Amino acid sequence: MTLPHPLTPPTPPPPPTPQVRPVRLGPRSVAALALVSAVGIVGFGWPFLAPPSSRLSAHAQDAPWLFAGLLVLLVAVVAATVAESGLGPKAVAMLGVLAATGAALRPLGAGTAGIEPMFFLMVLSGRVLGPGFGFTLGSLTMFASALLTGGVGPWMPFQMLAMGWFTMGAGLLPGPDRLRGRGELALLAVYGFLAAFAYGTIMNLAGWPFMGALASGIAFDPQAAVPANLARFLAYCAATSLGWDLGRAVVTVVLTLTLGPAVLRALRRATRRAAFETAVTFEPH
What we know:
By secondary structure, this protein is an all-alpha fold. Helices cover 66% and strands 0% of the residues. Helix 4 (89-109) crosses helix 5, helix 6 packs antiparallel against helix 7 and helix 7 packs across helix 9. The chain is globular, with a radius of gyration of 22 Å. The N and C termini lie far apart (45 Å).
């Protein structure tokens, strides 16, 4: 038996297997997503974009119903993304399972004190399956949960777009193919914490301009300048949703750190077994 030379260098580990991205963002999908995001930014941020003399403020009460038309555009973006990426039946099945799971998780806490376990699943799914899948999954999950809980209304397009951004952001985090272990969990936990507050702040913009005289000290004032309305909005967030957003952020962090390793392994294993991008070929005899 020949013994290895003591100076023989160790065999290097195999390179990490690149992640499979079931939904790739093609040029048309990117353009459509950029368009709907631009419309969404205007729809969310119009109180800070319209000057006090603008007639837009006079029709503020009509804005939620008009903005509900964004739902059609969101569905079109999701459909275009799925069609352009050539999504196979296995990827469609995984998309449906994850969207149904997220929709089922949402009512468990009923939003009580920010206990919303669906957010950690969206973070992990977006991380493993990429930004294209993330935006599609986030939007469809909110749509399915609205149907499940009877939460269909003019606020639903806001929720779909915000959750699409939330989940897509997880797919844009650095190191998707190399970062693993505690470093990845820490990255996802920090993202989930910050994004939970961002989601709550964005959703506050959907309802804050329409408070009217319910809370005059923190309500939107069409005649006030942007700095004054910004101060009112920050006071509104602190008074109404800070505790809620903190609870959502803490729950997301705790679930990510405790259940994250098992869920990440399961998602990556399912993605590899599905082999979304493996083309079917036939060899000639």
